[in-house]
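Figure-free illustration: sequence to structure, shown twice.
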Amino acid sequence: MLRSPLGHLHQEPVTMDDYNSLPLPENVAITLEALKVPKAISFAQIIVQSSFAELVDCRQVTANDDLFFRQGDEIVVFDITPQVGQQPINDIRFVERIAVHFDALDHNIPWVYALRADFPKVVHRNALYFEQPQCLCIYENTYDELKVDWRSIKFLEDIRHWLELTAKDVLHQDDQPLEAFLIANMGTIIVPPDYKAEETLFIYYIARKGGRLSLAASRIELKNYEPYPAHVILLKGEPQAQGVIGMTPNNLTDLHQMLLGAGVDLFDVIKKTIHGLPKTAESMAQRLMIFLDLPKLAPRPGVNENDFYVFLTAENADEIGIQMQFLDKDEVNALGNVLFERTDMALGNPLGVAALLPQIQLTPDWALLLSGNIKHFDQRETRILQIGVGALGSQFFMNNARSGFGRWTLTDHDTLLPHNLVRHAGDATYMGNFKSIGLALTANQIFGGDNFADAIVENYLHPERPEELTARLQQASVIVDVSTSIAVARHLADRKDLTAKRISMFLSPSGRDLVILAEDQHRLLPLDALEFQYYQRLVDDPEMKDHLASEKGVRLSTSCRDISARISQDHVAIHAGIASAAFRKMLSMDVPMIGIWRINEANMSVIPSLIEAENEDVWEIEGWTIRVSVQLIDKIAQARLSKLPNETGGILIGGYDLERKKIYLTDTILSPKDSEEYPTAYIRGTDGVEMMLSKYSSKTADHLKYAGEWHSHPQNCSLAKSGDDIKLFEHIHQEMLAIGFPTLMIIAGDDKKYQIYFQPKH
């Protein structure tokens, strides 16, 4: 039997008439011992043992004709005494009567209701299909998460805590988003962002499960989905205070009444809409889909949000018009009474409506926020041209696409073939099509057709439309080369017609290591210079001895060139994630960088090595460009000082690009042990030289090799060639001519000064 709790101080005691009842279907009162739902039993027992709560009633639903309260569900009613101050901000009483609805199947979170009729309309309530009694939102987490640590004593304490914080008006934290006005109970619909009333929307049926619909609204017609017969009405209400609306309407009358408070006469809008529809059987047999934009005011100033809801009518336009008595039944019958079969919803209420939860189509800005990359927001519109969308390139691009970062042009002339699917981000949808086109379309579909990316099908080195490719390159702020082609990177490095910063990334042949070379904004060190500094890094780091080693590839066809590398998709995925994150970071850095990330096969950890590139001296001699590492000159200067007053010398290590007439000097083999060093002469020995040269060749796949000689002059001497130097230079020249390389010699002097002597092959 229900008892009357104590009244609030300074108020009359609460009586039976002051309580609301739950809209239960057929039910019976039961004792605590008769409860069958495990959580209801445990909760009622805790109440009996509690010092601040008292059990009032237990009920069990015996009918199964309701969508919310089902047969076997149990309700526990109790009085609770929260700790409330003398002057609470919100009218929470010293004793509140609460009912908890336990789902017999334990699929839904126990619903908590404040039974007092004049319970305040505060925040953190659930808007159900009935407004009274009010349903309290105790938890933010899903029930599946809460079940892991569900304890009845904690549940009771959390209800009490909710009442205490609400009394003080501190339940809603400043950093919390505003709570939704309504609960969408019949499914979801995906809608495009920034939809305007004058636009046409196409509605499509996606799926249905458990009585819930899944629909999509699109600005463009979609061929792969079934059209859903509905006319769209867009409404915008006046701002509403958070917590004002306490019920989710399930019929047009309730929705109309709710919207009157937001300054919208829904009945008038519906009447005008239906009158404006074509009077055809197909048009009049469609439902109405009401898009409702409802601005929300926070309880504290300075915080406002918009709630967006979609309501779908249970009746078709003609039935609505007849029941609202502004369409003539004879006129409708004259259409042939051709109605769509009603198989997706049957609420049973006159002029029923169901709330659908709208999911706004993903936008690049939203993706940037959701992916935790908001720090790159200022760079989100960066124009990026990517060359190569193979295994690494495709996954690198899609990582950036899903992050909403950049505006991209992809160029690649390869097609997507079956074996590519092992490591490529594309899928079989675009099999046989060009990789660049397939990826651009995939990215744009993520954003509902947004022009996030486009594609140009070209071989960068041999384009069929060079003017178009050049125009795209010139529009870009950043060019990222993921072609894994040395020729492409070096060609890019030479182009003076482009202003974009250039970044190159590739995997080692085994796929174990990722390499990224990033120019500075002013391009003081272009990609080709960074490439040879990277080779030098391989020599300096003993852990990189097998960096450029590779396994034998897999033959795919009859051609001797149809071979695919054996690289794990796991490795590609790991490195693509690193590459996309490092890429965004490097865009904001104005220093040239060389990065190498190595996977530790033992535990799958990643070992990073990120270094700032060294400055270089650049010499232009007889049409050739010679780049000299400052680190090399420092090494030579230190060796000279250590051997004074004698002369010393050694071998120059470097690389060549004979097509572009470039030499890159990176290191030296210092004077061998069997060398002869005198105050006015130097004769280089050969001890250990062959082994050292082999090390440079094997570690760098022969990119670094013998590149010439150097020797020092005594203090206070010029850097001009002596008679012996002239003979030495001629001797070197003859040997280099025999192997097809130009001749280079450096003479080092005081204060790190040096002179290059150079003779082309001819």
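We now fold a second protein in the same way, so the two outputs can be compared directly.
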Amino acid sequence: MAPAQGLKYIGTRPVRPDGLEKVTGRANFGADHAMPGMLHGKVVRSPHAHARIRSIDTAAAEAVPGVLAVITAQDFPDRTNFSFGRKGFNENLLASNKVLYHGHAVAAVAATSSEAAEAGVAAVVVDYECLDPVTDALQAMSPDAPILHEDLITQGLDEPPTKASNVSRKQVISKGDVDAGFAAADEIVERTFVTPMVHQGYIEPHACVGNFNEDGQATVWCSTQGHFGVRSMTAMAMGMDEGDIRVIASEIGGGFGGKTTIYLEPLALKLSQKSGRPVKMVMTREDVFRATGPASGTVNTVKIGCKRDGTIVAMYAKLIYEAGAYPGSPLGPGAMCIFAPYDVGNVLIEGYEVVVNRPRVAAYRAPGAPQSMYAGESVVDELADRIGMDPIDFRLHNAADEGTRAAYGPTFGPVGLKACLEAAKAHPNYARPLGDDEGRGVAAGFWFNGGNQSSAEVHITDTGMVKIVEGSPDIGGSRASMALMAAETLGVPYERMRIRVADTDSTGYCATTGGSRTTFATGLAVIRACEDVIRQLKSRAAATWEIEPDQVEWSDGEARPVAGVNVEAEPLSLAALARTAGRTGGPISGRASLTAQGAGPAFSVNLADVQLDRETGRRASPPSRMPAPRSTPTTSRVRCREARSRASAGR
């Protein structure tokens, strides 16, 4: 890959800072940490999807040889006066009155061996009163459905309800007059799409070690996408001050959004506090699937109307998102994204979040967007086919552009959706005629991208080595990105960069790695910290030459007098200035903490060709490879839903 235009380091493909340790097997992941005297923790999980807990008897478990601690919800702060959101969060860690999904944690055991801990788990006696479960969103919304939470009142309705419901909230996004838009439409397509809950399937299960000291301070080692978030969530569950908890992020064996929350960390700390020993907890694969958050299942109805010339005049969606046992689904992002690629005057999106007897959902790769956009893009494709228009031309005719006001609020700046559509149409594969057993899916993608808070420090050693310290767990090569940005800003070779993801006590606050924010936000903090270093380097050089700092420029890793300054001076490199730092003001370190603003929304265009076996309906062998382009692209007709689904998931 050639360097980006005007840049020396960004755009190159150097060796990743974490590469050597990972390929040699020396990298430490969540389950690799060990401490002297460490115990092994295991969780008692409910065999019922919905049941009231009458009692929990831990006496037999406490008598098992090797068991040193057993905990239940009663060992944690009283939840009676918690807000519903906080109560639900803590109840998901350990249930106190009701279990709400198969695998819900009700107790935990720490013992000197895994075998003893398993025996302790088997000895815990829980008396359940089984209740009717509801695992389907539409069933949960019916008036006679079993109620999961007697104190859950639907938020967002025009008239506040007077009784509990499984619908936790309603969200509406609107623009224009959708009824008038449909009245003016020549063609209308309305379809309903059902997507199931789906797990992220990360290779590494959740794992942590908790150590609670006698002085009331605690340390957690864990696999996470955000150790500052682990600190705040664990402190909330434990009733502790965040300043008394130190969290160290291990290398991460996959997360995809599923490791942005916690399940084990407060349990490990409470077991450690009770036993006086550090406690390791590692989920089995069964634990991961039974008790950690998948992506929301959805029932999404989309209705779109257009004129015969291809102008979309109205777009409507009813989105129903399963939250699992407690509220917290990504309904909001799903509603924001579904129609964002289109400049349409009349839009109405009604969203409903529903609790069901399944694990509380978690993020999964642009949380909420794939489910809604799959539905929306499928209807766009079908509507294009209905009026006999090429699906890319149909999108080009209605595409969002600079100045388009999205239904969810913002007005877009420069965006590249039309350029992506034109590039997709010009691709040789799009000109390939389809066989009778093939279908072609086209889909636009959208994500608004995040900013949020980040911090970074840049320290210069006496030899001119650059040490970068930041707090964003690296889930996809962000350390290399940070080092490249630092090299570009300082004008110093990438090979002179050393970067570390520090623990919560060793660097400033960084929000969770997720939402496509880290390279943008933490990278911006790294750049600002490097600029702080450059200001200091220019000041040191100015003092050496006995001129003013504004008479010094920094270029290609060297300080030079600006043109026109009457001083005889050879350029001073970073290494030269670092060697004399002790005589010119002390160590050279730059710092930055910020809330990153101005994250740019991103669009994509995805194509998928699928070949089907007509007898079974299954996908057959891949279509033939792309030939040379034809002069006139053929109009594609979407012949199978799977093609549209694959294209929508192309992000």
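Summary for the second example: The chain has three domains: 33-131+201-291, 174-185+294-448+600-648, 452-596.
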